[in-house]
Amino acid sequence: MTLYRVTHRTTYRYQKEVSASYGQMHLLPRAGEGQTCQATRVVIDPAPDDLRERLDFYGNRAAFYAIHSEHTSLTVTTTSELSVNRGGLGLFDVQPWEQVRDQTAAPGEGGWEPIDFLLDSPLVPVEPALADYARPSFPPGRPVLEAVLDLAQRIHADFEYGPGSTSVTTTAGEVLTARKGVCQDFAHLAIGCLRSLGLAARYVSGYLETKPPPGKERLEGADVSHAWAALWVPEGGWVDIDPTNQQFVNDRYVTTAWGRDYADIPPLKGVIFTRGVEHELDVVVDVVPLDDPG
After folding, report:
1. CA-closest candidate to residue 148, choices 73, 37, 230
2. pTM reported for the whole predicted model
């Protein structure tokens, strides 16, 4: 088990005065599936006239705020303390991927949950090209987790990590064509490949603790928001895989939310009322292990 304090600070600086802001955030860690959140604090500057939290359709913690006073900047800071203990993968990897596919499609297997993540979504429309890319990792009879790890390794090898090369509206098919992107794009690509073969897959957002090079001190603000994919395995549940780092998710990952794709769970989205057309954005993330003696 690993204990963490996660701080996420987002600051907007506006070109002209904003008369009102309304927003929604998916920045609060989930509970369950090996993760327990002990405390969460949300601080917004300027102070909101309304701030409330609810669970969305997928059980994510979604917070909403409304600011009616004039302002030229907006800072949203969330601080959470939590423990992560994901455990092992058990014996799920011995199941052939075709068996997982057939059981996922069977009526009543797993209830509604896997079926919802078999369908197309706005940023992951299933295309034949995605199935073509996925097939070399899924030969007949291959154990499902061996296959999905091979897919993650191929994405890591075949695609260039390029910040700024895509946008939050880039689809999985566009990433496949461009052969570059960031963690969000590689998660979408993996999800599209899995769904194209009849496997249920969802998009997961959160954080990854970054470790400094040997002999170097950990830098404040060096951590980042992260995204990965998860595969449904009947009788086993969800197995998280990170194609950006070609590995299964472990205790260094903190989950905030999941959905069909990024469009379901952006970290922050909202509406502002202003005559300005431009703004500056600054995001700082810290994932600090509380049980690290160093």
Report:
1. 230
2. 0.93
Residues 6+ apart with CB under 8 A from 203: 124, 187, 188, 191, 227, 229, 258, 259, 260, 261, 262, 264, 265
DSSP state of 33: S
Q: Tell me the pLDDT tens digit for each residue of 24-79.
A: 999 999 988 889 999 999 999 999 999 999 999 999 999 999 999 999 999 999 99
Domain with CATH 2.60.40.2250 in the chain: 2-84+266-289
Q: Please, where in the chain does CATH 3.10.620.30 lie?
A: 92-262
- Domain 92-262: state its class: alpha beta
pLDDT digits (tens, 9 = 90+) for 232-259: 998 788 999 999 999 999 999 999 999 9
Q: 2-84+266-289 maps to which CATH number? A: 2.60.40.2250
Q: Using an 8 Å Cβ cutoff, are 242 and 228 in contact?
A: yes
Six-digit token pair at 252?
A: 């260094």
